[in-house]
Automatic annotation (TrEMBL):
One of its GO terms (cellular component) is plasma membrane. The keyword Translocase applies. This is ATP-binding cassette domain-containing protein. It comes from Arthrobacter mobilis. Gene3D superfamilies: 3.30.70.260, P-loop containing nucleotide triphosphate hydrolases. GO terms for biological process: amino acid transport. Residues 2-241 form the ABC transporter domain.
């Protein structure tokens, strides 16, 4: 549904070239939610602008729903953009218009019949949970309600794709979860394909099927959520499955272990401790469910002088990922 191939964007600042995107390639299947994460300056916002051709790429191609945007003529590009809904960090509603009038605006631009505009806008407000708020002005709405109006507006043109640029970063935690649940529900009900640009891993955990890490204008990690989480030691895995800080006790070897699926509910660590007659100390641990798969992530310490190799080999034979962690790991 969304295919990006070797996308580059270079800006000129005086005599200097700034590479914002450096060969980004990406494919998001129909009906899925894909997250793009990265620190400030990684190129996330530039990618969104290039996906809609609001900012022309220096090279490379962008295809959405089979339409090649990067080489499309003016009329074809306008038609393709109507099939893309945009949700922003701030809803950017028009203060002088009511909720239903804000939602109606995209339909007015394409000269939809007036009776159809009113009906459709009211339907969309009901769809996002705002039935009864049709005549409310933005000043009368909460932050979450404004974002719901923004989502309804993005759906006005019956898009195939939703591009969400930091859709919840201006919201409190409870409202964030409500908006994320709404986006996930709409994706399933309407068969949408969603690309979410975010710096919040909570967003990725809650709704994404797959994720890419953007750094320095390049995708440095990419994959299905459960796959990247299972890659012990990767940056995405560390961010998705963080461990709280903990100081080692004594001088015993420290191991970091990661297990998932059925393994997460089995007492493997207890069995391993009995098998090798070891008193294992759990320094830190977390259990989370990502994309329907449960993960357990632990940092354990062996008694002073104990050889970690047999224990590590045994755990790996059981399907557990193991790596040595420095005694100062935290």
């Amino acid at each position: 549904m969304i295919t990006v191939t070797d996308l580059r964007k270079v800006y000129r600042q005086g005599n200097r070239e700034v590479v914002a995107l450096d060969g980004v390639s990406l494919e998001v299947p129909k009906g899925s939610i894909h997250g793009i994460v990265g620190h400030s300056g990684a190129g996330k916002s530039t990618l969104v602008r290039c996906l809609t051709l609001l900012d022309a790429p220096t090279s490379g191609s962008v295809s959405i729903n089979g339409a090649e945007l990067s080489s499309a003529g003016h009329q074809d590009l306008r038609a393709a953009r109507r099939r893309i809904g945009m949700i922003f960090q701030h809803a950017n509603l028009m203060d002088s218009r009511t909720a239903v009038q804000n939602v109606a605006h995209p339909l007015e631009i394409v000269k939809t019949p007036k009776d159809r505009i009113r009906t459709r806008a009211a339907e969309l407000l009901k769809l996002v949970g705002l039935a009864g708020f049709e005549n409310a002005y933005p000043s009368q709405l909460s932050g979450g309600q404004k974002q719901r109006v923004g989502i309804a507006r993005a759906l006005a043109s019956d898009p195939d794709v939703l591009l969400c640029d930091e859709p919840t970063s201006a919201l409190d935690p409870k409202t964030t979860d409500e908006i994320l649940a709404l986006i996930k529900d709409l994706t399933a009900r309407l068969g949408l394909t969603v690309l979410v640009i975010t710096h919040e891993m909570h967003v990725v955990k809650r709704i994404c099927d797959s994720v890419s890490l953007l750094a320095g204008g390049r995708i440095v990690e990419h994959g299905k959520l459960r796959d990247v989480a299972a890659n012990l030691g990767s940056e995405l895995s560390r961010t998705l499955l963080p461990l709280p800080a903990a100081e080692p006790l004594g001088s015993g070897a420290v191991l970091e272990i990661l297990y998932s699926g059925d393994r997460a509910s089995e007492p493997m660590l207890t069995s391993a401790a009995r098998r090798f007659d070891l008193d294992l100390n759990v320094l830190a641990g977390s259990v989370e469910t990502l994309a329907g798969t449960q993960f357990g992530h632990l940092r354990i310490q062996l008694p002073d002088g104990a050889d970690p190799a047999p224990l590590a080999a045994y755990l790996e034979d059981q399907g557990v990922s193991v790596r040595a962690a420095g005694k100062d790991a935290a």
